């Protein structure tokens, strides 16, 4: 199997980001975004998706967390697009439901090349550490848009820390499942012949 890796940089007036990704990794992560809880979520994403991931972001946190979270999602989405290439042989579809104590998140993904995002649920508290809770939803939307995913996600719970973490773990497990190579398949999982 060819290596499914990518290295992507993004630099704007708001952020400077470097991301490396190995889709077929061991779950190793080195993350520094300046937002402790967001770092924890990206590390959890790598661990549970078995993705090797490095993320370095210097963002305008003196304003708020929006640009950092959004631009990391954009860059990570571009890294998935680059690493998966023509998507030959991938499973393509996956869904996961992940609990964390009282919280339950569900994530359904199609690595379709057609960006679409739906979200159902609300976060029980407005912030977790220095991360604004609703930015978890925005992260998913920005990732889906830039990785070409159809992504449906939802969460229910009583604690925003648990709700956000369950979402990131569910996303990781679903993406790991959907991007796996099906050894029976020699082409792409589409009647159109491309994704």
UniProtKB/TrEMBL annotation:
Highest taxon of source: Archaea
GO BP annotation list: L-histidine biosynthetic process
Enzyme Commission (EC) number: 4.2.1.19
Catalysis: reaction(s): D-erythro-1-(imidazol-4-yl)glycerol 3-phosphate = 3-(imidazol-4-yl)-2-oxopropyl phosphate + H2O
GO MF term (any one): imidazoleglycerol-phosphate dehydratase activity
Enzyme type, top EC level: lyase
Entry keyword set: Amino-acid biosynthesis, Cytoplasm, Histidine biosynthesis, Lyase
GO cellular component: cytoplasm
InterPro entries xrefs: IGPD_sf (IPR038494), ImidazoleglycerolP_deHydtase (IPR000807), ImidazoleglycerP_deHydtase_CS (IPR020565), Ribosomal_Su5_D2-typ_SF (IPR020568)
Pathway as given in its UniProt record: Amino-acid biosynthesis; L-histidine biosynthesis; L-histidine from 5-phospho-alpha-D-ribose 1-diphosphate: step 6/9
Gene3D superfamilies: Imidazole glycerol phosphate dehydratase, domain 1
PROSITE patterns on file: IGP_DEHYDRATASE_1 (PS00954), IGP_DEHYDRATASE_2 (PS00955)
Family designation: Belongs to the imidazoleglycerol-phosphate dehydratase family.
Protein name: Imidazoleglycerol-phosphate dehydratase
């Amino acid at each position: 199997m060819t290596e499914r890796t990518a290295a992507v940089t993004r630099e704007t007036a708001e952020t400077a980001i470097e991301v490396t990704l190995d889709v077929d990794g061991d779950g190793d992560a080195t993350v520094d975004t300046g937002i402790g809880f967001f770092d924890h979520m990206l590390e959890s994403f790598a661990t549970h998706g078995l993705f090797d991931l490095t993320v370095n972001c210097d963002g305008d946190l003196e304003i708020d967390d929006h640009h950092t979270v959004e631009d990391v999602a954009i860059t990570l989405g571009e890294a998935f697009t680059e690493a998966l290439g023509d998507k030959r042989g991938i499973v393509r579809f996956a869904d996961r439901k992940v609990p964390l104590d009282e919280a339950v998140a569900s994530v359904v993904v199609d690595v379709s090349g057609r960006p679409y995002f739906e979200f159902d649920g609300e976060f029980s508290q407005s912030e977790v550490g220095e991360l604004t809770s609703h930015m978890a939803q925005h992260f998913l939307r920005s990732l889906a848009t830039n990785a070409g995913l159809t992504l449906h996600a939802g969460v229910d719970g009583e604690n925003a820390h648990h709700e956000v973490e369950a979402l990131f773990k569910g996303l990781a497990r679903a993406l790991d499942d959907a991007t796996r190579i099906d050894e029976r398949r020699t082409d792409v999982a589409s009647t159109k012949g491309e994704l």
